[in-house]
Automatic annotation (TrEMBL):
Segments for region (Disordered): 234-253
Pfam families the record matches: YqfD
Classification via NCBIfam families: spore_yqfD
The species this protein was found in: Desulfosporosinus acididurans
Keywords assigned by UniProt, alphabetized: Membrane, Transmembrane, Transmembrane helix
Protein name (record): Putative stage IV sporulation protein YqfD
Domain of life: Bacteria
Length: 406
């Protein structure tokens, strides 16, 4: 390795010598103390390499023996430096661009905001600028954690504020607070599920059910109460010419308020065969790589799946060059996951347990968040031979009252 570096630093000249006195030329060269490398005899003459400093010393031997010396190639740092020295303007331009990119990469050029829905982007950026986060500032000198904490304190609707540095871009990530929606006026409280009412409290409105009563989904539990006010002028119906039979519009009403708690029952059934044949992943995965140009994909490795049965998963990796501009070429990764036929035999207890777990997971998806589970019952139901059927019933205690959709 060091020999190659020394050779590159000194420079080498590849030449060919032609003439009738090549042996005398070689003797004179050696007498001058010139070292030749990789000397070869050919029909056209003699090929060899010599250091750049020793090449001029070949001229005396060439004149004495009437030998013609022609340069074939040049190798080494002296020739590279001379070539670039003739392009001083290009080198200066590259240096200016490199310095400019180095300086610009240390500045904040773009400020973007994500995650905000109610808070205006302009307001967030204005507050950030007052804290020192503005474009064309030195990014390394900014305390992003302190700015994010101050922004979170100044924005009442922000539950969390985070700042992320992506090159020359600062991304302000906002997570807004989820405030309970105020129901529209004139709303009734209805039952979200069928159940047995155990507790009711009315804050505003007229109760429509009593404790111990069974209700169905959608049934009104607490109705809106009309607000006391001055009746409006009667409106005569065009279909009824008699003013005595005219109707008056409804009085303004306010939304019903209160809560109704009760017992709700959920259930799900699942059956599981004792003998089953199915395809499942074996765990073996083969990966293939390719390049995507627009809609065209060229697979470099593993164009087809090496397995008889496989699930094909395609992942795309784009290359981000500058800000939002991405390289038009994408790298494609294709994962071939082997599938194999599996013959499964279960005992009665195993089939029942698996059916019970599957049914229980379905029941849990139906239960309202925050509901209190009181009791769970598992029943084995009659089924066809070779199949076990299980029913899971869950009793909960939860809030039944929700506002009806307008």
């Amino acid at each position: 390795m060091f020999d190659r570096l020394r050779t590159f630093w000194q420079g080498r000249v590849f030449f060919i010598a032609r003439g009738e006195q090549l042996p005398h030329f070689l003797n004179y060269v050696l007498q001058e103390g010139v070292a030749l490398y990789h000397t070869q005899r050919s029909e056209r003459g003699m090929r060899a390499q010599v250091r750049l400093d020793d090449f001029r010393r070949l001229k005396r031997a060439a004149r004495r023996t009437h030998t013609r010396v022609h340069i074939i190639a040049k190798y080494g740092w002296p020739f590279v430096a001379a070539r670039w020295w003739r392009r001083k303007g290009l080198i200066a331009g590259i240096a200016v661009i490199a310095v400019g990119l180095t300086v610009l990469s240390q500045l904040v050029l773009v400020i973007s905001v994500t995650g905000n829905r109610t808070v205006e982007t302009s307001e967030i950026i204005q507050r950030a600028e007052k804290l020192g986060l503005r474009t064309w500032t030195y990014s390394k000198g900014l305390d992003l954690n302190k700015i994010a904490k101050t922004l979170q304190e100044e924005l009442p609707d922000a539950a969390w504020v985070g700042l992320e540095r992506n090159g020359t871009e600062i991304v302000i990530k906002i997570s807004e607070k989820i405030r309970p929606s105020i129901p529209k006026e004139a709303g009734n409280l209805v039952a979200s599920h069928a159940g047995l009412v155990k507790e009711i409290m009315v804050i505003q409105g007229v109760p429509q059910v009593h404790e111990g009563e069974l209700v169905r989904a959608g049934q009104v539990l607490i109705a809106k109460a009309p607000t006391l006010g001055v009746p409006t002028t009667p409106i005569v119906s065009k279909a009824e010419p008699n003013p005595a039979k005219s109707t008056t519009p409804d009085l303004p009403a306010s939304a019903a308020k209160g809560f109704v708690r009760g017992r709700v029952w959920y259930s799900a059934e699942q059956q599981m065969p004792l003998v089953e044949d199915k395809n499942q992943e074996s765990g073996r995965v083969a990966k293939g790589w390719g390049i995507k140009f627009g809609s065209r994909v060229i697979m470099v490795t593993m164009q087809n799946s090496p397995f008889e049965q496989a699930h094909r998963e395609v992942l795309s990796h784009s290359i981000r060059v500058w800000r939002n501009w991405r390289f038009p070429v994408e790298v494609i990764q294709v994962n071939y996951k082997e599938l194999q036929n599996v013959h499964i035999q279960r005992s009665v207890s195993e089939a029942r347990q698996l059916a019970e777990e599957t049914a229980r997971s379905e029941v849990m998806k139906k239960i309202s968040p925050g509901a209190q589970i009181i009791e769970e019952t598992v029943k084995v139901l009659p089924s066809n031979p070779g199949v076990e059927r299980v029913r899971v019933e869950v009793e909960t205690y939860e809030d039944l009252a929700v506002y009806a959709n307008p």
